[in-house]
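Why does residue order matter? Because the sequence determines the fold. Keep that principle in mind as you read this record.
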Amino acid sequence: LLIGLCIICLFTSNFLFAQSKINYNNYVDSIDKVINKQLLELEIDSSNAKLNLSIANNYLETDELDKAEVIYLKSIRLDSCNFDAYYNYTEVLYNQKRFPELINIASKAIYLNQTNSNIYNRLGLAQSKLELSDYAIRCFNNSIYFDSLNYKPYWSLADIYDEYDNNIYSLELRNKAIALGADGYIIYFQRAVNKYKLKDTIGAKQDFIKGMSYVINDSIDAYLYRGSMYEYLGLSNLALKDYNRVNKLDSLNEEYFYKMSLHYKLKGQKYLAKSYLKQLLKINPNLSYAYFELGELENNKLFSNSRKIIAYYDTAIKLNEKNYLYYHNRGVAYYYKSKYNNALLDLTKAHELNEYDYFTNYYLYKLYTRKKAYSVAYNHAYMLYYISPNFHRAYSIQKKAYEKLVSQNTKTQ
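Structure:
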């Protein structure tokens, strides 16, 4: 099998790769010219909601997400009933991984158009990223209900059932998505994983080859993705080969160093994992997630190196103040150092950024229980049950919190 998988390869000429960059740059330049023309028109008619929406869409097309967000919000202020403005804005939020905000905006979009299949799919994607799987499944099923020929929700549902290791159903869903028009290397690599785990090694090999047939000029992305699939299957030697191909194509590729750090983290070789992260930071010292990962690598159950851990999280937060995980992890580090006030501040901030995180709510429940603020503690215990209604421990915590709240209220009467 390993020999068979090893011979999967891709021949990409340097000429085609360079040509693709030229074509993309020309495409971006053409959109920039359109934007510049539209901005001149906007000076004359700044309250034109449709014009603002068109400019925002063009910024989104060129990956200028911050500019796109500003104009989308302006378009929404000018016309609060325009479904497209809300829906397209959710793409900005998704690309920026601002999933709690996406849920809020998507909910407003659904209020304006309750039968649009794509908005349910987008909402489900955000919920799945926040591990709200039960709610995500409902959204994907709604998406299918309103458009059974839309391949996206079938594909999204397959990702959910991958988490449950239900490869039979995931494979069925991906087959349906492909039959409806889904293509590209990603879905074929994913289907290859399903087949491999179902012991269909020949089918897996065929899908890996099929996936690479879609790749002409974006070989770096394909190698990185296929490498991550091999990593997931435990085929670490094959993963390394793909990552090394990336390094040969681009010796300063940031994703290469990050993938290599994760590779050695999975193997328990923390020293090498740290080494690749430090090399990554030499290339780009402003990568908040690299400092976050360094903090993770210093972590252990006893938090014996908490000062160093917290220092890494401090830097990550300075570089990115919108990632709830950074505050969450620093708050937990403070918690185990018995610095409960610091922990409360950080975990509260994490909760403001993402109220749906199970463990943030769990630690806030514990902190407010320590303070005997049982009313607030109960609210967080209720959220645990809301997030994981089928998890018995969540129900037990909610019940315990409710009993303490009732007891406290009885004493004060």
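Residues 38 and 44 are 10 Å apart (CA to CA).
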